[in-house]
Specification:
334 residues; alpha/beta; Rossmann fold; N-(1-d-carboxylethyl)-l-norvaline Dehydrogenase, domain 2; 2 domains; eight-stranded mixed β-sheet; two-stranded antiparallel ribbon; 15 helices
Length: 334
Amino acid sequence: MLNKITILGSGNWGLTIALLLARKERRVTVWGRNEKFISEISRTRANSRYLPGISLPSEIEFTSDFEKAISNRDLIILGIPSHALRQISEKIVDTKIDISKTYFLDLAKGIENETLKRMSEVLFEVLPEAEKNYAVLAGPNIAKEVALTIPTTSVVSSDNPKLASEIQKTLSTNYFRVYANDDVIGVELGGALKNVIALAAGISDGLGFGANAKSALMTRGLAEISRLGVELGAKPETFAGLSGMGDLITTCVSPSSRNRTLGEKIGKGKTLTEALEEMTMVAEGVNTTKSAFQLSQMLNIEMPITEAIHNILFEERSPKEVVAELMLRNLKAE
């Protein structure tokens, strides 16, 4: 049984998982690098920024002491942004703490810009001993809905069936149902790449387009996600599941979706810099767009929506012009 659990990261999803575990009467430690912030939520038992109106029970211990947080743990949950995973992994190595028997569960969704590696590949490069002890959680999971105990499903993927089963049992409740599969590549890529399409869906909303346009973006977006995923070794059926289609739908339609919200701001005329300044949480899709575009070019995979979002974000192209170009591409079979 996974009894000693630490969550690295004090953002809304990490805190929501901590809340879920505490409601199951599990003792859980949440680590955050900002000592003042951690001290405040430990004292007030609330985080008005990420989970307004929700009390954080006493079963959750908060700390900014990294070595204390990772020492003698059964499970370390990586609730940090994807761009911080390498740094945090190196920080674990620097402590010289034995983590050979510790399991790792990744919540981050992204592809490292500099190396184009998935999250598991980054972790294994720094911590080779984690390779047999790794799992990833993904799916249509808006943190606020889970915190409010609204029925939700998710999927945990691992090459270690025993670990996947343990995490299923550890996280599943009467409002949070966890499935399992063994396609780590597919689950990681589905979770990361759907954020690019969510940016497109948000831009569509910002431009005032309707359901037809968003449905087209989601459907054709899933097609290009699947093309890249299969080329990188994923199973095609994974993209029809919770970490593929499921996560894509939620992220493209939910008002709480960070990436959809960022895209909407851009669709209404803000620059990427202006839109990011108005965001209070990380929108992973921006960095993922860079990586996905580079991968598509390197592997010669057709990803027209990803290319369009790349041009809007980083080439300062007009969203309306880019949409027109998408619609007027050479006609083809579906």
